[in-house]
Write a structure and sequence with these properties.
Layout: H1 7-14, E1 20-21, E2 24-25, H2 56-64, E3 92-95, E4 103-107, E5 113-117, E6 122-125, E7 130-133, H3 146-150
Antiparallel strand pairs: 1-2, 3-4, 4-5, 6-7
């Protein structure tokens, strides 16, 4: 059975663009590349930044066009990057854009950094603080949302749970 495509989805999935992130050059259009998903203005709600769900057929067509290491990061070990906990305002979890967000860091209250690697075809979603499929996360906006969830963590005087 043929997949049903909306004009916006078809354009978003099939258009050709260049996407640069840690030397990754993509030949496919990511679903979030169309505005407002690519917007970083403060007037855009974080809910607008989430990528809509796609059908199985749409995802399969998109994945058939992607190549590991070109369209999404393909690390098998955690690389050394320029990220340090000194560059962030508070303890929390942070996507490392130097890795296309496949690596994320936890900055402890004492400044100690812990590093984690998202699994194959996944990258760290700064809005949800979890790894998600690369086509559902816009790594380019991660730094702008470093404090969105992290500001609610590690507050003194508050109990957990």
């Amino acid at each position: 059975m043929a997949a049903t495509w909306s004009g916006h989805t078809l354009i978003a999935v099939l258009s050709v663009v260049c996407f640069l992130s840690n030397n990754l050059t993509s030949a496919v259009q990511f679903p979030w590349a169309e505005s407002p998903l690519n917007a970083t203005e403060s007037t855009v709600s974080v809910f607008d930044l989430r990528v809509p769900d796609f059908s199985t057929e749409q995802v399969q067509l998109f994945l058939n066009q992607t190549v590991a290491g070109r369209d999404y990061p393909d690390f098998h070990t955690i690389p050394v990057t320029n990220f340090t906990c000194r560059q962030v305002e508070q303890p929390g979890y942070y996507a490392d854009p130097d890795t296309g967000c496949q690596v994320y860091r936890r900055c402890a209250p004492d400044g100690t950094m812990f590093s984690y690697l998202c699994g194959e075809q996944t990258v760290f979603d700064q809005l949800l603080l979890t790894c998600d499929f690369f086509y559902k996360v816009n790594c380019n906006i991660s730094v702008a949302y470093y404090n969105y969830v992290n500001m609610h963590m590690y507050k003194s005087g508050q109990s957990v749970g």
